[in-house]
Amino acid sequence: MAKEWNFSQKIVPTLIGLAVLLGLAGVVLKVYGQETRVAGIESDGRLVLGDGRKITLAKVRVKTPGEEGYEAAIFLLSQMLSNKEVWITKSENGNYAVWIGCVKNVLGFADCSKGVQVNEALLKAGMAVKQ
């Protein structure tokens, strides 16, 4: 007599395995970059990091001296970033996306799902121009 195939005996373990795999992928597919501290903001909107490096924000240009909103842009950047821990990721052109409010996990990735991407926040606030 042939053994009857039980649909739930095959599908349930497969679904559980898939859920575990997707959960692990969710942990791994987070922002990978570098945690650092912003020491200051230059007049052109570049960020000075705690280790002395100067970085430019990716895909945006912070308003420059003489442009309407320049002072507000530098003030906003200073309030958001000066002496704060940030998460940076390098783009293809060598500029950086900057995140605040990220939580680092044990694998060295950052969960920024509840954080703020500074580049986008500046655009939304009208303090930067898209490049």
Describe the protein in words:
By secondary structure, this protein is an alpha+beta fold. It has one domain: OB fold (Dihydrolipoamide Acetyltransferase, E2P). Helices cover about 30% and strands about 25% of the residues. It has helices at about 5-30, 70-80, 120-125, and strands at about 35-40, 45-50, 55, 60, 85-90, 95-100, 105, 110, 115, 130. The strands form three sheets. A six-stranded antiparallel beta sheet has the order 3-2-1-5-6-9. Strand 2 and strand 3 (about 55) form a beta hairpin.
- What is the average per-residue confidence, as pLDDT, rounded to a whole number? 80
Helix fraction? Answer: 25-40%
Q: Predict the CATH topology.
A: OB fold (Dihydrolipoamide Acetyltransferase, E2P)
Q: Kindly provide the name of the CATH class.
A: Mainly Beta
Largest sheet: 6 strands, antiparallel
Walk across the major sheet and give the strand order: 3-2-1-5-6-9
What's the shape?
elongated
Sequence-ordered SSE layout with sheet pairings:
Elements: H1 7-28, E1 34-41, E2 47-49, E3 54-55, E4 60-62, H2 70-81, E5 85-90, E6 96-100, E7 103-104, E8 110-111, E9 116-117, H3 118-124, E10 128-130
Antiparallel strand pairs: 1-2, 1-5, 2-3, 4-10, 5-6, 6-9, 7-8
Name the descriptors:
single chain, 131 residues, alpha+beta, OB fold (Dihydrolipoamide Acetyltransferase, E2P), six-stranded antiparallel beta sheet, two-stranded antiparallel ribbon, 3 helices
